[in-house]
Amino acid sequence: MPISRCFCTLGGQQQLPSRHSPMLPASLLNRFRSKPAANPPLAVVPALPAGVWPVQSATELLQPHAKLLARIRALAAVSDDYWHNLYQPLLDNFATFVQQTPASEAHHHCCQGGMLTHSLQVMKLALESRKGKMLPPGAAAEDVNQQQHAWTYAIASAALLHDVGKPCSDQKLRLCGADGQATPSYWQPLHGALQSGYYRVEFVRERQYRTHELLPPLLARQLTPAAALSWLQQDFPGVFKAWLGYLSGQDEVAGIMGQIVTEADRQSVAADLSGGHPLHTQQIPAAKAKPLSQRLLTGLRFLLDEQQLPLNRKGAAGFFDGEALWLVSKRVLDELRTHLEKEGQTGIPTRNDRLMDELQQHNILTPTAAGQAIWNAEIRLSDWVQSLTLLQIPAMLLWTDASHYPERLAGSITPAGQKVEETPPNLPLSGEGQEEDAIAVPLDSSPDKGRPGGVSSYPETVAPTPPSPTPDTDDAGQHFLHWLTTGLRTGKHKLNTADARLHVVREGLLLVSPAIFKDYDLGNWEYVQKRFSKLGLHRKQGNTNIWRYQVSGQKKRGVVQGMLLPDALGVLGLGYLPSPNKALSLPETETSSNTGDS
């Protein structure tokens, strides 16, 4: 059956079809060949806040991908009429629908415009794979020749539309005014593409996972030209069934078409995550290769975001104590490796100890007091108790916003050799009516050797010369100081946030205690804290080393306490610290009686 049959019957006219270049009816040709209206002059786009983007036309959105589109058109190998009436409308509709949305929040193609870039890459890779295949498999040469353009179009459109559900389920587009300020309104994707204005992308937190995989059949009807749908459905029901099967997530129905598009998707994802060249893509600019440690961390974020690593239940893969995520070592590393290999990433070590070395060398894993990656700990959840080997990763490395943290374990995590105790709650900077971070008592309230009664006799002033920033000593206090300084210089330690252990105050730098020392060494934090206090770098408050600060905000109250470094820049050798945290202040009585000490 000639490829042009559907156009002839749809147009109500009979034309002589070409074997390799399908013809269109005169009614359609006249409509598409009519002189297009002159494009209106482009409006001047005002300066917009970061993350607010203007709605753009298909021409504007596709122009940066001109080389990629030229390659796609060459691979499609169809006449101009066929391209302009079937392929180009599909591309235009898709581009205006997804606009400049990213393909993900923190995984592949997570940059501005990532969705369009990724989808076009998958389309091109799928067409390159289709080029050397006889479809349908095992068919006679005559059938293969007759169906070739139908298979090509079905594969190309399936590849382009494979992730089209994400802007509907994983993201929300908030409409903005010309000044860039957000409005209460959101884009309704099922009503059609945005036509004008400005928007910003917001990610859905409480979304129904994998819903985006169910939406392509619904949206395909909105974005695919009606003539193409009728052509496939009426003249090539087998191709149409495979096309629908792929868009519906039914691999057994999609068959070879699903295999081609899935492999193309895998290649595009792997290339973006690894920073290497996608296969067969000379037109794609080279990207800087991403280190293995960052690829491992990105993979972990993806598995957590997609809820593929169950948390905080019996037999879970991980447990969250409010500050760090404790992951069952072998199970999680095996799943992480499998995930990365499925994405097509290369250079992934086959041994778990190599993966742990990579994570630990880049300060992603929190080591034990002995410097090991593996923790032996007891997990207690109601009447369920289990001893496990675990990896500990600070929550801030996995979730950029503390509001995205998972629920805290309703139980306890006790490293080997430690007493069972519940992990203290997060710093209550944004809470109301919460308890203090810890009981404010002198650090040396227990008797100390050589000091009767444990009375502190530390100097009241800051030592004039801080210890070496790279201590050649076994002293735990100096090593803590080095860890503290390095973390501030590299940005690893948070400052002035609700979950931070460090706060700039008018009087200096507040080290939230004992939390900051527990972050450094959970098993020996009391000893580390005592050794650090002996360096004499902090300012005392009367007979105690602990300062209590009031926390205030919008109807929020609380107390946070810790050790105070009055000359943080000099002690830590830093060139800069941010402005004081306005939410923290000393009680008036303590301000008047203590701030004069130095």
From TrEMBL:
* UniProt superkingdom: Bacteria
What Pfam families would the database entry show? Answer: TraI_2, TraI_2_C
Q: Which SUPFAM superfamilies match?
A: HD-domain/PDEase-like, Winged helix' DNA-binding domain
Q: Which InterPro entries match?
A: ICE_relaxase_PFGI-1, TraI_2_C, Unchr_helicase_relaxase_TraI, WH-like_DNA-bd_sf, WH_DNA-bd_sf
Q: Where is the Uncharacterised domain?
A: 57-374
Domain Putative conjugal transfer nickase/helicase TraI C-terminal, by residue range, is 476-585
Q: Please list where the region (Disordered) is annotated.
A: 413-476
What NCBIfam families is this protein classified in? ICE_TraI_Pfluor, MobH
This protein is called what? Answer: TraI domain-containing protein
Origin organism of this chain? Thiothrix winogradskyi
